[in-house]
Each structure stands twice: as C-alpha cells, then as structure tokens.
Design goal:
Keywords: Kinase, Membrane, Phosphoprotein, Transferase, Transmembrane, Transmembrane helix, Two-component regulatory system. The protein is of the alpha+beta class. The strands form six sheets. The chain has a five-stranded antiparallel sheet with strand order 2-1-5-4-3, sandwiched between helices. The chain has a five-stranded antiparallel sheet with strand order 7-6-10-9-8.
Length: 780
C-alpha cells in the first residue's frame, strides 16, 4: 500500500476542491438557466394569450414577399387557407377587395423601400367589415430583415362611431354657425372671455356700443363695454361667475352713443373655464318703471281727491289702498286701516257703523260679495240703500292681476235731484199747458219734442201727428192752410233753423185766415234745442192800428197847427207894420208936436211893436222845417258873444242882474251863420236874465279847442227841478214858473240854432243851485 506524500495530498485536495467548485458553478448555471427557461415559457404563454385576445392582428411581410399572419386575421378576411404572399390576401371569393389589396401593397412597398409608416383602411370582400392597417418597418428582433410589420385593427365599429361623430360634428358645426350668426345679429352686446378673463370674441353690437372699427380692434385693445367704477371693474362679476360656477348679474351705468344708459350685465360661466356675457339696455325700462311709479303715486293722489270712495283689495283679500272719501264715507279710522284688514272684516266694520243695507242673512250676503273676487272679466254694479236715506252706487271690478277694486259713489244728492227734476218736469208740463202762449220745443234735427195744449189748439193739429214728433217743415206744411197767406208757413222753419243751427233769436208776425194775428219767436236753448213761441197779438194789433191812426191824425193836426201859426204870424206882420209906421210918424211930429206924455206913449208903442215883432220871428223860426239849412261862413265868436251880451244888457240892468262876459283867446272862429249863433247866445242870456232876481249874476264864457268851440252860460238863480229840466228844450213848454205861466221859447230856439250848426247843447241844473248851459260848436 502506497502512502501519499504530503505534497500529493495537497495537490489532490486542490484538484478535488476545484472539481467541486466547478460542479457547484455548473449546478448554479443550470439552475439559473432552468429558471430563465421557465420565465421565458411563461412570458411566451402570456404573449400568446395577449395576441389571441388582442383587438389587433399582426402580419409580417418579409423582404421576399412571404407573409406570416395569425388565425384571427384569416377569420376576419374569411380565408380558407393561410396566405403565403400579399397576393393571396385578395385571391378567391374572400379576402381583401382589389382596391384595398392594391392600396395595402403600395403602402408595404413604400415602407420596405423608404421605411415610411402608413395607415391604410381596407375592406373585406362581400362583407361589411372594415379594417385599419397600420404598418412600419419590422424591428430587428423579429428576425425579418427588410420586412414590414403590419397591424390590422377591426375598424367596423370605429367607422360607425366615426360616421356618427362626423354627423354630430357636422350638426354641431351647423348649430355653432347658426349660434354665431344669431350672436352677430343680436341687437344687444355679447362677448366671450377665456380662462384669463380676456376678451376673445365680441359681436357687432358690442363693436358699435364701444364705437370701435371692428371686433379685432376690440380684442386687440381689450376695450371694455363698462368703464371701471372703482369696485373691481367689469371683470369682477365675470371672475365671480368663473370661480363660483354660478351666473352673475349686475346693473351698471355705461356711455353708449354719447348717452348715459343703464345696463344689466349678465356673466355666465362656461365649462372651458371662460365666461360668456351679454348686456341688456334697461334705461327705457327703468324710465318706464319710474314713470309707472310716478303714475301710481299720481293716481293715488288723484283718487284721494275724488268724491267717490275707492278701495283696492289684493289677491289675499287684504286691503291695499283706500282713499280719504272711503274712510270718511264708512267712518274708518286710519290706524285701523293701517293693519290692512281682510275683506270680511271691512264689511263687518261697515255694518257696525250702520253703513250697509239692512239684510236678514248677513253671512249669506257677505259670502255672495266674497264671490266678487272669483268673477272673471265682469263688472258688478249694485245700489245700496243705507239707513238714513243714503243711496250708494257700488261698482266691483276684478283686477287682471288678482284682487278687487271697489268704487262707492254717493248718489243721494243725485237721487234727490232726480226727484226734484221729476217734480219740475211735472210743474213744467202743467205750466206749459196753462200758459197763454203756444209753445213748442224743437230738437237740433228739427223734430218737435215738446208742446203745450195751446200749441195744438191754435193750429188744430191731431194728437197722433204731434206724437210722431214731426219735423218742422212737415209741421209747417200741415199748418199752412190755417194762414191767410200759406206761403208764410216757411217762416216757421226758417225761425227754428236760425235758433238751432245759427244759435240766433229771431221773430216774425203772421196773420191767420180767421183774422187772428200771432207773433212768432224762436229762442235758442242751452241744450242745442229751440223754443218756438206764438203770442196772440190780435187785440194789440187792433190797438196798435188805432194808435197809428190817432198818431197820423195828431201829426196832421200838428201840421195844421204849424201852418196856422205860420199864417197867423205872417198875417200879424201887416197890421204890425202899419202900427209901427204910424207910431214912428207920431213920434216924429208929422201930426203935430206931441206932449211929453204923447212922446212917452209913442215910444212905448214902438217898444211893444219891436218886442211883438221879435216874438213873431221866434215863432216863425220854431215853425220852420227841421231840415232848414244855415250859411257856412267864418264867425268870430268874440264879436258875436259881445254883440249878444249888448242886446241883453238893457233888460239885465232893468232887473238889477250883473251880466259878465269872459272870452278866452282859444275861442277863435267857427263856420256857420253869425246871426243864428248870436241869436242862440242871446236866447240863453235872455232865459237866464229873465229868471234871476235882483242882485244875481249871469256869466257868459267862451273858449275852445282845435276841433270845437265852447260857449257856457251860467247863473246862480233858482235852477229847475229834474222834471222841468227834461222838458226845458221842448217847444211850447211852460215857463220856468210852472202852472199857467207864459210859454218859454228861448231854450228851444237856442237848441234849434245850435243843432242846425251840427253842435250840441247840454243843461245842468239843481233846484236852488242855479243853471249851467253848455254849447259845443264844431270848427268845420
């Protein structure tokens, strides 16, 4: 037995250790490879499952045209055998149609040559299946150099969804275009803000409102419609709407078109984070509301001034408003009404105040009035007769917005007036029928409305005719036969038309065939009608004719008297001239020298002859015609006045009367007859001197103006009574002494001479205060 050396043992141990280490390493590597193979098999199995369940089927097209495709693709294309090349995909009854096969072939060639990926839609023959082929150059790890990897997707459902989506997109596009057109055509400003609240779109109304050139300028310059008011500006509400997701509204002022307007701005959040907005011009609405408020206030103020009571109830039947007349009419206290009592409580309070009609079933009566609130589009009217004789007219009007309006009109006075009117009508009828005159009232259209019994009897009309209210022309025609001249019947129609149409009062007279005479008068009445009256003047006609005959007789007698006086005056002149001549011869001594008493007697005869001659001249002047003409020559009033005063100076001295003459420089001259003017002044002076006692005074004053001259004779004598002053200028009136005193011709003659010159004479006198007579003579 061999014994190993120590060195060999070491070597042998090292070799064994190495072998053992190599075995361990090999075991480790084997175990690792086994683990990797197990993992690879699991991955491969998973990939097979994924490929089998994948919605896409892969196909590898090698560089030589051979293809590798899964069973899933064969089933989609309906192939009976696996295809070897691309051409096999379109051979036979199944597979791809020719167009799809050619498009796929071209796409694969492009990918092989230029490594260009592609997406091609293909369709199977005789099938509705649509496929989407997505290809690219095959990756290197597929072990298909120069090949192409093509993934086929079943796009049948995708195509339907795509078609549906396209239709939806088309519809949404049309709706968007319509909405955009609507926004553009909208008359109110509209805009859109992005998520940063920047203006992204505005319509034409917005552009016009901010007076910009176009929408691009508005968006580029971010021109806001509403100016910054210092409280966040126009973006405040938009930011709140965006952050809160709730629409916002605010009323803000803005200047549009140079005018201050009130806008209601609406900001609406959008899903994309932006906000849309629009502005409504409410300026006119606000003004209308303010006008309505003012109208309501004015209406209530007006209702408070009405004499009729007004009460308005709301939909809850509570009192909303009542005027002062309502409170006064039903004795309602304002503090009680301030609680807005309900309709039933109002009726109960009226009953307590004894302001309701007396009814037996008050609850039922009240329930009937409560139904007024449900009556639609109808006006209810009632008459309430209250205790104490008060009459109320009640009008209930349901309101369109709900509620009830009550109007209470106090008609007590009207009822009393109507009763009084009925009484007056009866009195009028009785008065008409008992009047002596015949009366008829004609309407504006000429029809007879009222008449009395006298009217019917005068014309002899039948009751049936008058009851038919005939027109005035028909009535006149029916009564024409009663007149002496039937043509005069037209006068009736003319008078009535004058009173009704022209509103003028006219009258006339007609004679009846039986000898009666009537006076017609048509008087316009305030109501547009005409009152036609007929007065029987037959007796007054006879009296008038008698008076006319008497007047003619008196005028004839006056002419005879005047002619007699004139003839007598002329007849008296002949012996008077002889007396004067013989008296002058005696006074001149032709019959011998006279004694002193003879001379005195002859002078007295001559003086009496002169006075009698003057009286005769005065009588002749009075008996001359009224149209006697006077000469028109310049007359110096100063000389004329002094001449008249000298003629009266002798009698004035004899009576102890002071005669004063005062002629101003303005007296001047007038055109006329100097003798007549002097006689007029002389007559006035003689009248005054003849009526004065010793120691009295007469003043003759003459002045003038540019158009006329004035002559004034005044005295401080006894004056005249008012009755005598009225007759002072009448011819042949009694003298101032009254009774049987001599006739006074001075004043009538003076008046006659003055009026012959176109002048006027006035007399002012008072008993015991003297007399003042003024003459006005025109210059021309």
């Amino acid at each position: 037995m061999l014994t190993l050396s120590a060195a060999g043992s070491v070597i042998l141990g090292a070799v064994v250790a190495l072998v053992l280490a190599a075995g361990l390493i090999a075991l480790y590597i084997g175990l690792r490879m086994r683990r990797d193979a197990t993992h690879d098999r699991a991955v491969a199995a998973r990939l097979e499952v994924l490929q089998a369940t994948s919605p896409a089927a892969p196909m590898i097209v090698r560089a030589d045209g051979r293809v590798e495709c899964p069973q899933q693709l064969e089933d989609w294309l309906g192939l009976a055998m696996p295809p070897a090349t691309l051409r096999d995909l379109s051979e036979g009854e199944h597979g791809l149609d020719s167009g799809s096969a050619q498009a796929l072939n071209d796409a694969v060639r492009g990918a092989q040559r230029a490594a260009r990926p592609f997406r091609v839609g293909v369709k199977a023959k005789e099938s509705q299946r649509s496929l989407l082929a997505v290809g690219m150059r095959a990756p290197a790890n597929l072990n298909a150099p120069g090949g192409v990897l093509v993934w086929f997707f079943d796009a049948s459902e995708m195509q339907e969804e795509l078609f549906t989506l396209r239709e939806e997109v088309s519809g949404l596009g049309a709706a968007f275009d319509a909405l955009r057109g609507l926004i553009e055509a909208a008359p109110l400003p509209m805009w859109y803000r992005d998520e940063n609240l920047k203006l992204a779109m505005v319509n034409t109304a917005y552009v016009r409102a901010v007076e910009a050139e176009d929408a691009a300028q508005v968006i580029g310059r971010q021109i806001e419609l509403v100016e910054d008011s210092g409280m966040g500006g126009p973006l405040a509400n938009a930011a709140i709407a965006r952050d809160s997701g709730q629409p916002q509204m605010s009323a803000v002022p803005a200047t549009i078109g140079g005018a201050r307007r009130m806008l209601k701005v609406h900001d609406i959040p959008l899903p994309d984070g932006g906000a849309a907005g629009f502005a409504i011009d409410v300026e006119e609405l606000e003004q209308a509301r303010a006008g309505i408020r003012r109208f309501a206030d004015a209406q209530r103020a007006l209702l408070d001034r009405l004499s009729a009571g007004v009460a308005q109830f709301g939909t809850d039947r509570g009192l909303r408003f009542c005027n002062e007349a309502f409170r006064r009419m039903f004795a309602m206290r304002p503090e009680w009404l301030s609680d807005r009592p309900e309709f039933d409580r109002i009726l109960e309070r009226m009953r307590e105040a004894n302001r309701l009609p007396e009814v037996r079933d008050f609850p039922g009566w009240k329930a009937e009035r409560r139904e007024w609130f449900q009556v639609a589009d109808a006006e209810i009217e009632e008459n309430w007769h209250l205790p104490g004789g008060t009459h109320l007219r009640v009008v209930a009007q349901p309101l369109p917005e709900g509620g009830l309006l009550l109007i209470f009109e106090d008609r007590t006075e009207q009822v009393q007036l109507a009763s009084a009117r009925d009484t007056l009508l009866r009195v009028r009828t009785a008065t008409f029928d008992n009047l002596f005159e015949a009366l008829g009232v004609f309407a504006a259209d000429g029809r007879l409305q009222l008449w009395n019994n006298k009217f019917r009897l005068v014309w002899g009309f039948d009751e049936e005719l008058l009851a038919s209210h005939p027109r005035v022309d028909a009535l006149a025609q029916a009564g024409a036969k009663k007149l002496a001249n039937p043509d005069r019947a037209s006068l009736i129609g003319a008078l009535v038309r004058s009173a009704t149409v022209e509103r003028q009062q006219r009258g006339g007279r007609v004679a009846f065939a039986d000898g009666r005479h009537f006076e017609f008068t048509a008087v316009p009445l305030p109501d547009g009608n005409a009152l036609f009256t007929m007065l029987d003047i037959s007796d007054s006609r006879r009296i008038e004719q008698a008076l006319r005959d008497r007047n003619e007789a008196l005028e004839a007698a006056d002419r005879v008297k005047t002619a007699f006086v004139a003839n007598m005056s002329y007849e008296l002149r002949t012996p008077l001239t002889s007396i004067k001549g013989f008296a002058e011869m005696l006074h001149g001594g032709y019959a011998g020298e006279l004694s002193d008493s003879g001379v005195e007697y002859s002078e007295a005869i001559l003086e009496s002859v002169a006075r009698l001659s003057g009286l005769i001249d005065d009588v002749l002047d009075l008996t001359e015609g009224d149209d006697a003409k006077v000469a028109k020559k310049p007359v110096d009033l100063e000389l004329t006045a002094h001449a008249a005063a000298e003629a009266v100076a002798g009698p004035a001295r004899e009576r102890g009367v002071d005669l004063a003459v005062e002629v101003l420089g303005s007296a001047g001259s007038v055109a006329g007859d100097q003798r007549r003017i002097r006689q007029a002044i002389e007559h006035l002076l003689r009248y005054s001197v003849g009526n004065l006692a010793k120691g009295k005074r007469v003043l003759l004053h003459v002045d003038g103006e540019k158009a006329s001259a004035r002559i004034v004779v005044s005295d401080d004598g006894p004056g005249m009574t008012r009755d005598r002053a009225k007759r002072a200028f009448d011819r042949f009136a009694t003298g101032p002494g009254g009774g049987d005193s001599a006739l006074g011709l001075d004043l009538p003659l003076a008046k006659r001479f003055v009026e012959a010159h176109g002048g006027s004479i006035d007399l002012i006198t008072e008993p015991g205060e003297g007399t003042l007579i003024t003459i006005e003579l025109p210059r021309g």
